[in-house]
Known about the structure:
Blueprint lengths: L1 H14 L1 H29 L9 E8 L8 E3 L6 H8 L3 E17 L2 E11 L3 H4 L4 E3 L11 E5 H8 L8 E4 L5 E9 L12 E4 L2 H7 L9 E6 L5 H5 L2 H8 L9 E7 L22 H28 L1 H13 L4 H38 L10 H26 L4 H6 L9 H34 L9 E5 L2 H4 L2 H8 L5 E7 L9 E7 L6 E10 L3 H4 L4 E4 L12 E5 H7 L8 H4 L3 E3 L5 E6 L14 E5 L7 E6 L4 H15 L7 E3 H8 L1 H35 L1 H9 L4 H35 L10 H28 L2 H5 L3
Helix pairs in contact: 1-11, 2-9, 2-11, 2-22, 9-12, 9-14, 9-22, 11-12, 14-22, 14-24, 14-25, 16-20, 22-25, 24-25
Amino acid sequence: MISNYFKVAWRNLWKHKIFTAINMIGLALGTGVSLVILLFVMHERSFDAFHSRNIYRLNEVQKQEGLASPQKVPISMFPMGPTMKHEFPEIVNFTRVRRSEKYQATYGETRLELPRVFFVDTAFLEMFDFKLLSGDRDRVLQQPLSAVITESAARRIFGTENPVGKRIMHYGGDTASLMVTGVLQDIPLNSHMQFDLLVSFATDYKQRMMNNWGGNGWVTYFELAPHTDIRALEDKFPAYLKKYLSIEDRWKNYELFLLPLKDIHAKTGDIVLDVVNYRKFDKKYTDLFFVVALVILIIACINFMNLSTARSAERAREVGIRKTAGARRVQLGLQFIAESVLLCVLAITIAAGCITLFLPKINLLIDRNLSLQLLNGHTWLALLSGAVLIGVLSGLYPAIYLSSFAPVKVLKGSVQTGRNKSVLRNALVVIQFASAVFLIVTTIFAVRQLKFMQEQDPGFNRDQVLTIRMNGIAYKQYDILKEELLRNSNITGVTGAQDQLGGHLDQSGVGFTAPEAPVRVISATRLIVDRNYLDLYKIPLVAGSNFSPDPSLRGREYIINETLARELLKELPHATMNDLLGNKFGFDSLGRIVGIARDFNFNSLHHKIETLFLLNQKDFGFSTLSVKLNGRQARSVLPFIKSVWTKHCPDQVLEYQFLDDHFAEVYRSDKQVSTIMGILATLAILISCMGLFGLASYAAERRTKEIGIRKVLGASVQGVVALLSAGFLKHVLVAILIACPLAWIGMRKWLEDYAYRIDLGWWVFLLAGLLAVGIALMTIGFQVFRAARANPVKALRSE
């Protein structure tokens, strides 16, 4: 019996090839898109799930005076790990991480830079379940400067040699000899920590840093006892801070809180300086994509129901004959469900094939490594189960509806197919187009916001600026590098800085002394630069002057930004910015404010401009060399830069990047979201148009005789087209009225995450509405026009 159902179902599907093709394309698109999104969602939600212990990360809320607002950071002070373990019995173990980027590693004749190196405590591999391929897990990090290397990094450095027992030399400001004691399997891509090498802290470093309660540069993880009450533990932290940071009541400037390991990847959108968080992606976007996947899947199922009921008149005689021959309603219902299931199986098979074909390009677009394991039996079981479920759910309504026809009325030709239940069908179409309009609006705003951030004047010139990373050794050649590079006529400027714009900038506490006032200590972002830094980046001064060329004043002159100037003026109500010039400022009483720079966005536009001071003190060391190139000859200068670097830094790997490319990486997640939303909006519109096509087919079929009568009575083709189109446009307009307010609320909430954002212009909603109407008219136009031009004699012949 079941085989007969599917045999008849196959014949019916093959007989009506156009409807079958449309139905299959709609289902394949819907299920394919939904599957890809679900793969992405599953990947994002799987981050750090492979660790078995109860691990939390320690985070700070910094509330120092001078900050525009309290800010959450994932970094903490070096002594916090051991002292908190001592103070709180709930803490079973701890480890700290200090990340070092572009870490030079040398073995024999091989010299390269590892992208990510972690300096960690000995308990790191006791807490985290990264797979160790060789070495003793309990001992590999016990000795100072022991190193555990990943498989891929080991192949790059040692080739086919066994790395265990070998020494890696690091030449830099912190020259060290590292003993390889173990090899790790490459870190899973769903880990928020990605590294090539683990190095245990040196003993003297740990002893020296145990009294450093001022710096925040370490990421601290705790293993907590099972069933620990996190809120109760956090309530003890203020007393802890008061005990260890009692000098000058510094404890009041901090709050501490814990974040579960599984939430670090996806629930840290409001945490800044999150440098140990691979592919950080906000959970709200993941949830949004999950909802969109369900919406698209529902739209595809709605299309199936509409297209199935559109053929109701054609299937009515079949139902009548089957019932006359003794078929029961349940059997007929099962027949129609079998057709639905068969169609879904075919659609999902096509979708799986398309996903396999296009997934590499999709991975390139979203910067992930998703995979649909078609050779896995569990995968096919899940796909087929999903196909059956979708087939049953989407075919249930057509099965109930079509099997309900009375055989006598059907065979007499008096059944009125589709007259009842049209409210549900129309409501489903409204839902379809409301979803599509919502996606159109949100996509337009997302693209506009991204374009706004990319084109917004950051307050400095970053065009044709090449940045080169420097370590402690390369920095010693800074002066000679600068001198030789400037000899090239296509290089218009060279400068240095301790940090790169658009990246992590450190903060420092600095003192300010106004006339006849006590010292005021505030916290501000610090940028140590060469004296020509403002000139190269074309950052204008609103008051005062640039750094003096006098070497004796180096390190004693400070330039502050407007935001910091306004902060300092809060306690000087009658003073102006010019009155700040010459006042004592800085790390000691010898510093002076010599200039005030116009505010510029040294971070992304997600964040407001914070207080900032610049200090000309190259003795502190520069990590970034900035080279301003002639725009017309930019690429041709690169060989010259490489030759100069090789000449003076022969043992150092040249790592360079155009600053525009760096800022493109800063906004990469935003671009991915806007691109994905654009693709989903296009697909939602396409699938919704199939729904409208189904409705148009159904309406044209149901109103065939009405159209014939109207034409016999003198109605024109244009009049009939307008009459039939009005019903469809009514549903589209209702969809627009529903979608626009929801899109306005959603985008208003979404844009709150951006310190600098676009306005919610009314014209976007109007444009989306016009697009929806235009697309709807194009979709239904062919069917409506064909129905209006049909010969009325054929329509009325059966009467």
